[in-house]
Write a structure and sequence with these properties.
It catalyses: Hydrolysis of terminal non-reducing alpha-L-rhamnose residues in alpha-L-rhamnosides. One of its GO terms (biological process) is carbohydrate metabolic process. With about 1000 residues, the chain is α+β, with helices and mostly antiparallel strands. Bound molecules: beta-D-glucopyranose (BGC).
Amino acid sequence: MKKVLLVLASLLCFSTFTTRGETNATKSFTISDLRVEYLKNPIGIDVAAPRFSWKMESDRRGISQTGYQIIVSTDKQGKNIVWDSEKTASDLSVHIIYKGIALQPSTRYYWKVNVWDNDGNKKTSRETAFFETGLMNSGWNGAKWIKCNDTDAPENESQTDGIPMFRTECMLDKEIKSARIYSSALGVYDLFINGNRVGNTNADGKLCFDELKPGWTNYSKTVFYNTYDITSFLSKGNNAIAALVSSGWWAGHVAHGEYGSPALGFIAKLYIVYKDGTTETIVTHPESWKTSREGAIRMADIYTGEDYDARRESEWKKVGFDDSNWHKPTENKDFKGTIKAFIGPNVQVRKELEQTPVSITKYNGHTPDEKGYGMVNVIEERKGTDRLTLDKGDTAVYDLGQNMVGWVKFKVKGNAGTRLTIRFAESLNDDGSFARVNDGPGGSLYRIILRSAAATLSYTLKGDKDGEEFRPTMTFFGFRYCDVVTTEQVEIESMKGEVVGTVAEEGSSFTTSHARVNQLYKNIMWGQRGNFLSVPTDCPQRDERLGWTGDILAFGRAATYNADLAGFFHKWMGDVRDGQREDGAYYDLAPRVWGNEVGNAAWAEAGIVIPWTTYLMYGDRGILEENYASMERFMEQRSTQVFDGYKYNGGGITHGDWLSPEGNEPDKKRYIAVCFYAYSARLMEKMSQALSRKAGDAYDSKAKSYKELYENIKAEFQARYVNPDGSLKQKGQTAYLLALKLHLFPDEKAQSDGIRYLNHLIKTNGDRLGTGFVGTAIINQTLTDAGSIHTAYNLLLQRNNPSWLYSVDQGATTIWERWDGYTKEKGFHPATTMNSFNHYAYGAVSEWMYRYMAGINPDENNPGFKHIILTPYPDNRISFPAGQERITSVDATYHSYYGKIRSAWKSDANGNMEYRIVIPANTTASVTLPKERNQNEIAENNVPLDKAKGVVSYSIEEQHIHIELQSGSYVFTVKE
Ligand code: BGC
């Protein structure tokens, strides 16, 4: 019952706020974080009408934008204007579309924005913000893909004896004003000018290198080119341009033969503007370049690793190198698709995440015992250092303390010709026994689960007296441990773990009063970092590392809370579309490799779910427009699946509720397929509505037909799967979850019986999960929406198998493919071919952590967190399963495109609650806080709600308090 309803009309007159202790300084606002196409100062974008975003920052309550003016010019001073939006009345500051004169290729444009607030104050952005176009339609000026035509080279490029190198020298006889290189490879490439590795300068002024470029795309359709500002790399006179290409995702084992056995290739165009205004273009061409395989990298492959012989290093990247015994390349005609501008964000070494060993163990051989391999013979154990003397015959095991993805960077001293071999693994064998599924003696690397991925680095020393430093550049490993053996004594001076992955800004944080839950969140973050490398992958270590769509369908929403993925998903949807089969089905992998798994339920629908998620989280209408036609084709394919007397069968049933402990028989899989068809229809309805500009337009009528489709699927679902008493014919947790989430029950009674039955299933399963990929991804969210928040907390805090904290208790530092991939009790899981220790899907629970524990939600009707729905669900369980404790505090921040949102709560022993809430400038929030019947003392910062600034209106009900809030920081207390 409502006790009070106040609409504080006076507070809408914002200027009155300044009288309440606010100074002029706090009154002001700043404009920050200027972005174009999701990125800060991007170089080489080929978008005809790029989109602009910025943030308004202020600690003043109730501040909002009333207008903006974007000015784009070709000069820093803003004189040569190509677009002046003029003052536009709008409160939007995300994805504002360029509407100026046609952008020119290879041109840098500067931009600034004026913003007016609701007090009439005007501010101008201060950052030097720019974007630079790529080649657009200006073409490649005759640049050819070149390949190393060395006839001795074996067919399989991933096993070559030396990877191709390409070089040319060019005389630039005038002073250079600016220069760019546009370059790409069929394979993974690295680029050098006059001996220096090419990279771009970041906003902080530091040179930054892209790794594993140009990244992974569907090469039957698309390869990216990169753009680098090479002005400072070139000088008047002779210059050397050099590139290395390895098999990468194009021809390496990871391509699984998708493109046959294609040759590696390189293409580049240099565009130089001289100070006198003239220009020059230099391109790759068989006649003007040279190639050889006689360099230091003898072998490189993503699965296999890298073999580097430092004795073969030479001055080939520099001017004056004698390349007379190099060959002329030939033209590579193996690529039939389109070269497109790279779409960010880049893959880079993430310096802030560098890992140092927590221990080094040196052993020599092992002593078998009656149980199996026995244990390694430990010679020495060291902690707190990464330095070591290693003798021939001994093995050093480095423990980096964290399962991570990237490679090691090391410094070593020894004689020329000494060969170091470094292998990688996620775990160590424990006691070496066969019974515990060890693959070697206790203390050695456990590598059977890598399957055919050799994951090995070899380095042959050149014998530098000062030591030699090395890191690979053409491969990556998923590992926590590495072991090192040597052919002669060496001093290993340092060994660091460098984290390599897509740079997704991690502006969010999540901490609770529960140490194990905090560790779980940390593990989820590491799972995300490791598996977001150019594309979202299933795992980063074994011979997969593939873009399985079901995994990101499960984890995608959670991932968008953990980091900024707008650009990453925009790029990846290109891979999904490129792989779309002629009949409209999406592949189960994007980019498409690995044979013929296509159109399967709960995998292929990622092509529908990811655009919707990106729209919701980032307000990105563009991603809906870009993918709409493709999504419609997908829905058409689904409509053809008429068989077994049913019209609405949904997709294929290869995967079902993958790895479900409740089993995964064909009937259950078909049930899941039907539910996902209903899910797609609902999302298509919502996306059509989002695109509709006015009632009756084309999108509006599409929305209506998708609604009708959903209703039809629902009707057939009920006839097929619902018993006369309203219960489901499918009995498991996942079946009930899907029916609840998608509102497929015939009536409210059946639905509430369903909720009761689901709770019963979980209770009789010992408060444990009975779900695989599909069910686990939605279980806590669905339970909470259905009013069973206590069950959700019981599941989160469960310590027995299967549960999230079970893996944490077994020592996990990432999310595992199997809850019991390793157990202290039984050792490794016997399914050694499917046991990854870095598989993010089950990390989907972090979606629930942000959306329900902390309560941070976007508003479907005003997405991108322009309006925030804030509904925290504190842990107010009165009783809970033995061994569990109540969570007494949560503190979550989420970095939205409008700014940082915070939702923190803590409870005291009497159940009194304190909520700290931050709503970014230029946004509003609808807050719902829980309240016990006797809790009637409700205040903001010790002020009653009707007097609190920024509280537009509120209502107090028996069990809830609803508050409409303007931007600002608030502290609410709810007490007896
Ligand atoms: C992957 C999964 C993937 C599945 C498809 C596995 O090998 O690692 O995560 O989604 O295949 O069923």
